[in-house]
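4.2 Preliminary Data

To establish feasibility before requesting continued support, the project team ran the inverse folding procedure on a target of 279 residues. The structure was first converted into the token representation described in Section 3, and no sequence information of any kind was made available to the design step. The complete token record follows.
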């Protein structure tokens, strides 16, 4: 049997959690591991547990960016884990509209977590230990580049999550005519798949692209957190441990099960993923 530490999905979730602003997350993770790691179905249940923990911690911090906002919930969760491998989560429910809006202007302490989650929908390999938060539209620009928008407004938009992406190194390119082409030359050398995809898809990058990307990221992240257990009633069952489908292939998968009249289960998902690998 494959050891749980070789599970890419578990590794990715744990890597995202390491970027949480404090170490509260470690206590329930360690307790869960010590209590259930010898169980036959540990790997599946551990992944479900980690994803739900990540969803409530990240969403909670995005909405209320204070280190003590989840303290009581964590203490209750620690106790619940002792009694069940599918513990109850006593965390404050997060408002969908508020969360989606605050994702766009994400607090600096959550940016790395968000970018990791988005990156890991496109690759299995973990990001390097040290990586930069790349501002696609640079933080510095020539005064003549935006003539009809106040600098103060541009500065705010540049810091939106839709203008940020993981990159291996820091670039020092000032926003001027043709700046994105110069950046693309460096982006093409990256191993970060989400960055490569963005670079290939876009021929230019400005404020309109940031607004569009903002909306897309906000919706995608909310759907992921919701799928992982955000605001979920406490009826977590082992059937929730479905093989994950990359978000960019989810629409294709839905068409696949509809076309062949299949149920949404692990067998159908594995067949679909095998077909994708052969394409």
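Position-by-position output of the design step:
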């Amino acid at each position: 049997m494959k050891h749980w530490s070789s599970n890419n999905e578990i590794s990715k979730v744990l890597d995202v959690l390491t970027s949480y602003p404090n170490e509260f997350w470690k206590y329930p993770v360690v307790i869960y591991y010590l209590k259930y790691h010898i169980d036959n179905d540990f790997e599946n249940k551990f992944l479900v547990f980690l994803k739900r923990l990540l969803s409530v911690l990240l969403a909670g911090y995005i909405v209320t960016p204070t280190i003590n906002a989840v303290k009581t919930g964590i203490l209750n969760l620690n106790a619940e884990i002792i009694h069940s491998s599918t513990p109850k989560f006593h965390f404050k429910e997060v408002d969908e509209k508020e969360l989606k809006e605050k994702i766009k202007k994400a607090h600096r302490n959550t940016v790395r977590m968000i970018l990791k989650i988005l990156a890991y929908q496109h690759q299995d390999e973990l990001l390097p230990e040290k990586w930069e938060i790349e501002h696609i539209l640079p933080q510095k620009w020539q005064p003549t580049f935006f003539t009809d928008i106040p600098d103060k407004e541009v500065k705010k938009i540049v810091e939106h999550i839709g203008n940020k992406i993981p990159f291996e190194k820091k670039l020092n390119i000032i926003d001027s005519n043709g700046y994105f082409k110069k950046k693309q030359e460096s982006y093409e050398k990256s191993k970060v798949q989400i960055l490569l995809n963005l670079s290939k898809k876009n021929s230019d990058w400005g404020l309109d692209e940031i607004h569009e990307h903002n909306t897309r990221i906000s919706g995608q992240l909310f759907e992921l957190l919701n799928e992982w257990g955000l605001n979920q009633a406490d009826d977590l069952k082992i059937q929730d441990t479905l093989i994950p489908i990359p978000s960019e292939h989810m629409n294709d998968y839905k068409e696949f099960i509809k076309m062949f009249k299949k149920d949404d289960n692990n067998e159908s998902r594995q067949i679909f993923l095998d077909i994708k690998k052969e394409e």
